[in-house]
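Ticket #4471: structure output looks truncated?

Reporter: J.K.
Steps to reproduce: submitted the chain below (82 residues) through the standard prediction queue, then opened the result file.
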Amino acid sequence: MKVTVERQGGFGGVRRRGEIDGAHLSEEQRAALKQLHATDPAADPGADRFIYKVEIEDEAGTRVLRIPESRFPPVLAKIATG
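Returned output as attached by the reporter:
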C-alpha cells in the first residue's frame, strides 16, 4: 500500500505533497487513515482554508479522499508537511 497526502489551497496556494509506504505507517497513522473513510467531507466555512487530498493505492485499486483541514488528523498532515 502507498499513501500520498497533498495539502492544497490556503492563502498562498502553495501545495505540499508527501508519500509513505504503508509498511512505514505508525499505529496512530493507521488508525487515523481508517477514520478518514467515516469523515464528513463538507467544506470548512471561510476563505483560504487547506484541503487535504489523500490517495490510497493498494491491491483493491486507488481511492481518493478530499478532506477539509478542520477534519484532517494532524498525524497524517505531517506526511505532506514534514
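Triage note (M.O.): checked the attachment and the full C-alpha cell line is present. The helical segments are 27-36, 74-81.
Status: closed, working as intended.
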